[in-house]
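Our example pasted here:


***
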Amino acid sequence: GFNAAGAVDLSRLPTIQASDPDGLAFVDGYTGRIVHLRLTQSSGSVVVTVGNASPSIYDATIVLPTGRPAKSVGVLLNGASGKPVIAESRIVAASSTAADFVDAVGVEESPTSGAPELVIRGASIAIGSCAGSCAAVTVAASWAATVEDGAISVAADTATGIGVAAGAAVSVRRNTVSASATIGAGVAVRVDGAASTAIDDNEGLYSNGPIAYALHLIDDAATSITGNGYISASTDADEAAGIYLERSTGARIVGNDGIY
């Protein structure tokens, strides 16, 4: 970008502001790169929609829609064959954002064919002042996803850092994830009957709130939890667990620094 004097200013990002309800969307089969841009939405609830495309979004800043919409989504994934990559990017909520429902990166539709795959690498995702059920990343059935080398924080009435649905295959590694809730549950990573999940070598998984689970496994029999730093739930919570196994019998928990 440029400063007021017209000189190049590397701290300023060129901005693309969408006005379509679907935000910035890609044609099927697109494989190009979106680099060093600020992406915003002027009227809709979604900033970027990725269907059957495989864009690489690199060094971008995605600003969640402001105001109080019923839903606020940074990147929506709803295709059956896309392989998007979000790398070294930032997804942030403006100070006035207080949506009832937030997904910084979310999958709303489970594909019926193909092999869609999401990679989030080196991203910073920060959501605050969310007056509802809010998550940084949700992964739906039949998707494969890798979330690595990132910093993720969510503060909301009900807060989830990373949510993994039944049938998904997800790797969460080398991240710091925190979830802080004011009314409901704060869960850093929630795995609900996923096909295959590896939670390995993360620096820390932290949760806080009236109900606090750093890691919540539900109907899960295949999660690997190895080599992590601290997996920690607030001691001030009414109900808390570093790892809460709910009808889950097959998790492999090895070599973590501390679980409390």
User: Anything to note?
Assistant: Residues 123 and 150 are 5 Å apart (CA to CA).
